[in-house]
Hints:
By secondary structure, the chain is α/β, with parallel strands linked by helices.
Amino acid sequence: MNAPAHTAYLHAQQFAALTPGPRLIVTGAVHGNETCGTQAIRRTLDDIQSGRLQLERGLLTLLPVTNPYAYAKKERQGDRNLNRNLRPGNPSGDYEDRVADVLCPWLDAHEVLLDLHSFHTGGQAFAMLGPRDNAGQLEPFSHERQEERLVAHLGARCVVEGWMQAYERGVQRRRRERPDAPAELLDAAYGVGTAEYMRSRGGYGVTLECGQHEDPHAPEVAYRAIRQTLALLGMARIPLQPPPPEFTVYHLEDVVDMDHAGDTLVKPWASFDPVAQGEPIGRRHDGTLVRAERDGFVVFPNPRALPGNEWFYFAVRSDRTLNIE
Length: 325
């Protein structure tokens, strides 16, 4: 690890109102090349420090840069992907594991998370939603209604669910086909990122994908989301805007890894581009085509993925509706 000295700490700013209320943490730059959240959080900090925004209830923690090493590199990750296998006490000593040792206790101390991201290729903003209430083994949860209300007010009309189920399938495939892969890629907890960790600790959290990395509108999407979250939770006197009249909800069915640096996508896919059963999505370096197993949609296509990491996701329409009351 060759992280520069100025990446040796996390810098969060916290505001505690004198009236009790929700405990909210907002994070940006979990991936170092995703800076819309950083810009929006810094704008919110300026609003608070100038008096334009006043916290009236609860506790607000703002973390503009969650992964300083990746941010300094202007790359997705430092040593590894911080938003996978997130937990304290990982023994590897990777930079992101050291970040997790600080970040996870901060998440533990809050009830609600808003995690702000962007994505590689074109497409509209979308929100990542957790599971329905359940007592299962994979991702037990009891805040479905609260999380759906939060998603409904963030401004995105597209919603994606099924993250952990897709990763469970991906890990099982790696164990069958690539048993010599790095241990973290074979870990059943590999899909756990900030929101999943938050749910595992009794809270709830939403990941908002605000647009393509360079989209000039993405910071505004992130800024509006912060303000609407504060409004929804009753933490500041900000008008709560009505949610969109309709949402399109997608369910992630699978995650497909890039196996080799020579793997290529057959076209410049954007998230939610439709694909028909049998249609080629990518081509392996040996010429083998990767085809859609059924009618569905491409999500998170990443033509610059690292070998062994996520190349694209496959989704179908979900029958889930959001509780927006």
